[in-house]
Amino acid sequence: MKNVNIVDHPFLLDRLRILRDKNTTTTQFRNTVIECGEILSFAISQDFPTKSVTVETPLEFTKVFTMNYPVTIVAILRAALGMTEGLTRYFPDARIGHIGIYRNEETLKPVNYYCKMPSDLSAGYIVVADPMIATGGSLIAALDVIATMTTLDSLRIATLIAAPEGINAVSEKYPNIPIYTAAVDRELNELGYIVPGLGDAGDRQYGTF
Ligand code: PRP
Ligand code: URA
């Protein structure tokens, strides 16, 4: 699919090995998710424009480049908090919106329970972070909320593992939004988990088994 960018940098693939391993501890998992956010920040921003400015080195004036526009990260609670921490290491001035959504375990339908966003989303870029796209329901619910606040032209999605079912659902409703993911896995199982996947991203980050 043209909107899906698979970020298969060896650094990220090696972190995915750690995340997928069921023997990885909560501490290791949490730290690795943060690192994945850092690595993904390079991929999602590759086409961000730079502006030419001048600085004076100890020797002379020279032309340098800067990225000076607002970036808003939208974290889908709660599993995106680790990725968001990683993303902010390269976007230290980013504003961070939070949208609380969980999946009803029986119906797999998203339940929205919280939303706190910066007041003006129209300037700069929006990066929506969620490590897992399973049915795609949570992400679509988050995009629906954001769409009531601004256009989605400068929005992109950062995730770690997506299921084909979720990618299809998101792409059907929002075909022009770029999705950056480390992997597209085989399928969803009967409980709505991505397989092979990594299990429940929130529980594994926060030890809530
Ligand atoms: C997880 C994950 C996604 C969602 C993906 O959240 O972080 O937001 O599932 O599933 P979907 O594509 O089928 O909607 P979860 O419901 O486990 O909530 P949590 O992050 O608070 O644990
Ligand atoms: N949410 C997760 O955290 N993991 C899955 O496999 C599916 C949804």
Characterization of the model:
The protein has helices at 10-20, 26-44, 80-90, 137-147, 164-173, 201-206, and strands at residues 4-6, 51-56, 61-66, 71-77, 95-103, 110-116, 125-129, 132-133, 155-162, 179-184, 187-188, 194-195. By secondary structure, the protein is α/β, with parallel strands linked by helices. Strands 1, 4, 5, 6, 7, 8, 9 and 10 form an eight-stranded mixed beta sheet that branches. A two-stranded antiparallel sheet has the order 2-3. α1 (10-20) packs antiparallel against α2 and α2 (26-44) packs across α3 (80-90). The radius of gyration is 18 Å and the shape is globular. The mean pLDDT is 97. The protein binds 1-O-pyrophosphono-5-O-phosphono-alpha-D-ribofuranose (PRP) and uracil. Uracil (URA) binds at residues 79, 132, 134, 193-194, 197, 200-202.
